[in-house]
Each structure stands twice: as structure tokens, then as C-alpha cells.
Design a protein that fits this description.
CATH topology: 434 Repressor (Amino-terminal Domain)
Order of helices and strands: HHHHH
Low-confidence stretches: none
Strand content: under 5%
Largest sheet: none
Shape: globular
Number of helices: 5
Number of domains: 1
CATH architecture: Orthogonal Bundle
Number of strands: 0
CATH class: Mainly Alpha
Length: 81
Amino acid sequence: MTRIEALGVVIRDARTRLNISQEKLAESAKLHRNALGRIERSEVGLNINTLWLIADAMGMTASELVQKAEILAADDPASAL
């Protein structure tokens, strides 16, 4: 798993743990729901501003999301390829 794939997983997992729909999170982060869905599915990367918007909308820091993604990607044996 790449780091961008891991970041999509981390964002989706945090959103579901907070019991927030994609629509609600996208609205709070001032993003289109389709854009958020594509980020969660790792179909597109995201810039730091978008990461901050998503993190703020979930009451988290961007560094928390990135740290969790780094750990997830490092724990995946396929990421070493």
C-alpha cells in the first residue's frame, strides 16, 4: 500500500469512526462529495490545503492523519516493493 492509498484509508476510517457521512464531511471541508470519495479511494492525491480542510472538519490535525497513514503504509509488506 502506498502512502497516498494509506492516507485515503485513514481519512475514511476516521470519518466512519466519527459517524460522519461523506456528504457531511465534504460540506464541512468545503469539498464536493465526489472529490472526497475519490480521495478516500486513492484515485487522486490531495494537496496540503485540502488535507488541512479535511482534518479541521474532523477535529483532527493533518499531522495526525499523515502519521497514521505513514504507519499503515509501513506495516504493509507490499509498500516495501
